[in-house]
Amino acid sequence: MDRKNKLMIFSLLLAGICSPVFSGEWKAHVVKSLDALVSSCVVVPCSFTHPGGNLPNSRLRGIWHRHDKRDENIYNDDYAKILDNFKGRTQMLGHLGQNNCTLEIVDIKDHDNGPFCFRIELVRTEDNEPTKDKFSFVEECVALNMLPDVPAPTLNHPPTAIEGQPYTVTCSIIHTCPSHWPKLSWTLKTGEIIEYHKDIRSGNWETQSILAFVPEEKDDHSEITCTAEFFGGKTSSKAFSLYVKRTENYNHIIIPTAVAIGTALIFGLLCVFMAKKYKNRIRELQNREGSVWNRLSKMSRRGRS
């Protein structure tokens, strides 16, 4: 086989290997809308697919840009190509080699509403220059809904606590920044605290703090507060009044009753004893009087005779 034929076969093999990557359809999946707390942070879930299988990070370059201006980058591997007001505030949390293009924005400004779109470029490994294969997913962009104030936590608890029995309160908050969890704290310093983080989909997360303690009588009508502190320093709180029901206690009835019964029993026994003694005394007196009368009767008979 001559050199020309070998070169042709090699070219065909190379085209067969590369064609699924470069000629296939690329798709991105980006959350369409997310709440973002001003001065805090937001994480935008993003993934993409392509027909050529996984590619190494070194072959991929991820870019986030404004929807209507592709040259205005809010994130780029090249720091110099990022808009000045976004420099130091964005980073790619996902690994492009794993088809993950998730973006984080911190120190949210009230004008960071977007929409923002993801763009991917294939690069040559030897000089890191982009090829002609560039894909901007302008149909899959995220718009941010600016929240100027912190939402209040949600409290779930039984309406009444019972003295001496375990009592549980759950404090929860919804947020969109799982890279920096909100911190939940309680004013009550006793008891056990368990914290959970739950993905509730579409870029929304729930952080829960469960407080378990055993209430005492002194806790009745006390106020328990849960405070949520977000990344960036903003806080919000929710409180409720604790009502503690005393455990049923019948000592105030049993003790006086027992004393009364004991007193009556002693008094009754004493009365029986005194009555018996009195009856015996009367019997003795009657016997004595009978013997005296008999003697007198005998003496009276003797005198007559």
UniProtKB/TrEMBL annotation:
Keyword 4Fe-4S included in the entry's annotation: no
Keyword Signal in annotation: yes
Domain Ig-like stretches: 148-241
Query: Signal sequence: where?
Result: 1-23
List where the protein spans the membrane: 253-275
Keywords in alphabetical order, please: Membrane, Signal, Transmembrane, Transmembrane helix
Q: Which SUPFAM superfamilies does this one have?
A: Immunoglobulin
Put simply, this protein is called: Ig-like domain-containing protein
Per the UniProt record, the source organism is Amphiprion percula (Orange clownfish)
